[in-house]
Each structure stands twice: as C-alpha cells, then as structure tokens.
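Q: Could you fold this chain for me?
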Amino acid sequence: MELTERKKKVLRSVVDLYIRTAEPVGSKAITELPDMNYSSATIRNEMADLTTMGYLEQPHTSAGRVPSAAGYRLYVDELMMDYRLSVDETKSINTAIEEKMQRVDKLMEKVARLVSQATNLPAISAASRQSGATVLSYNLLPAGPGSFILVMMLSGERVVNKLIKLPLNVSETDLNLLSALLNATMTEIPLEEFTADKMEKVMRSAGSAASLVPVIVDFVTETLKTHNSTDLAVAGQARLLGLPEYRDVDKAQRVLSSIDEEAFSNLPAVMQGANGTKVIVGPENIADELKDTSVVVTKFDIGEGMQGMIGVVGPTRMDYAKVTARLSYFAESLSKMFAKPENPQLPGSVEPENKQE
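A: Sure. Below is the predicted structure, expressed as structure tokens.
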C-alpha cells in the first residue's frame, strides 16, 4: 500500500491533534481543520489504511486513532513543521541563561534545570570529552633535593604536573633516561593500554628509576580518567506526573525510577558523530521502562575539547517541533556563551594543577 501525500497529511494532522489534546483523534476532528478539504468518509478510509500500515493505532473499538511508534518516527523524520520560537520564548531563554549561568559551578545541574523549566519536561545534560585524552609528552624536572616535577602535555593542549618525592639513589641522569623511555613507549595511547605488562617492561629498562614508574603510571591513569569522564545530570523528573500518560501510578513509578544519571550514561556515546538533534522514539530506547517514552537530545560546544549535550524525556505524544526548536536554541546560546577568544598557552608554561605526592 502506497503512503501517498494525502495519507501523510492525515497522519500529520492526527499527530498534531493528539499532541495538543492527549485524546484519540476521530475523522470528524480532522475534517474540521482549515486545510483539510476532504470528506469525512475519505478521512476515515485514509485513517483505516494508516492503521493497517502500522502508523496509527486504535486503543478501543469505538475510539479514534492515536499515533504508533512508527507513526511518530515518520512524523519526526518527514512530516512535522518547523517551529519558530516567539520573541518572548527567546527572551525567556536568554534571560534564564544570563541570570543563572554566571558561574560554571555545578554547570550540568544548572543546564538541566533550565532546560526542564523551558520545556516542562524532565531534562538531561552532560559534558564529556569529544575524544579520549592521551599523553603527548613527558618531562621529568629535578626540583631540588629529594623531589622532581613530572610535567605531561595532554591532547587538546592541556598541561598537568605533579611534584614527586625521589628515592635517594635516583640521579638527574636516571630521570633523563626515564623521561626518554616514557616518551618512546607511553605516548599517544588510550587509557586502556596502560596495562601492568607495559608498566613492567618500562620498569625493566628504567634502571635506578624503576621505582618511580608505578607512581608515574598511577598519576597518568588518574589524570586520563578525569579528562575522559562524563558529567551528567537529570532534573525535573516530577514534571511527568502532570501528564495524562502517567496518571497510572505503577507506570509513572517505573518510568521515574528509570530517569536517572545511570540510565542515560550512554547518551553521550550515542551523540558521538551525530549532527543536529537526535530523536529516540519509544521502542527505540534501550531500557524497557522507557519503551513508551521518547528522548530528544542535541549537542553544543563547551570548548577545550569538551562537548555538551542537552535533552528532554517525555511521552511519545510530546510536541517534537517545539521541543527540538527550544533545544536547538539552547544549544546555540550555550555554544556562544562558552566561546572564548583564542589565548594560546605560552611555550613552557604549566597550569596550576600541582599535586603533592
């Protein structure tokens, strides 16, 4: 059966009306739309065909139709109209960002709360490295009697350093040898390749400085874990309780228990390489508890090798056009807020991330 333009128009009307009313849509409601110049019988036939094709569902024999997951997917991919934010909406978002984002402390929590307030849905936000950090170079510098400074240049032009106490039998020559050994064997490799076997091989070649290798490797792995981590926050879960889809207490409890940081920890990976906004409709979600729930996410740039992500969680009946428009505007505004003029680090300078062993 062919999905004609008329069928697409009817499907779009059903989705739009169901989004607005949360009630099954009948043919009479569609014929009353100003741009629907078809008879009631024609509309009923098209709705019956769309039901047979799997784009609509009929909850009860005498009731109207509601969109299926496949219907929502077609709507999001092809049928929904662009939503243009009003002046008041853009002003409200800008004011919220300016007032509440003056400091970046607990950044992700603040972003999630703002997005939840703007969409009236539970919101998620995350910040993660665009790619895994690696060490580009090591430098071991004597720092007076009994200590030296480990300086590491990371990908993304980040520099970290640590003051480490020296065993008495390690000389400056030993430090130079170990520095050369580390640069030859432990640069530009991902965190998972810092294995015990690799560490033992370096220790066997490090001579008198062998005892320093475990200390250095521990600091390297700790640093890379920090730079590869994802900060994720969820806000506004209780907003679901005001929607008709979640009046059933058991259903609401199952969904609410699934909307947490752990459930959405894989979303930053989902967004890797994705352009624009991604819509995950109902059954496309991994968690069983979210099979009747949709997730809409989009990315923004934080800078310094960091990627931000914001999104909302809600019923498959959510107003996708309005939600995607607001998320896109949020993402653009946040990217502009984080944009900084280039200020390259001076050669040889070290960021103040000193740690005492």
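A (continued): The beta strands are 56-57, 66-67, 123-129, 135-142, 147-154, 158-165, 230-235, 277-280, 293-303, 306-315.
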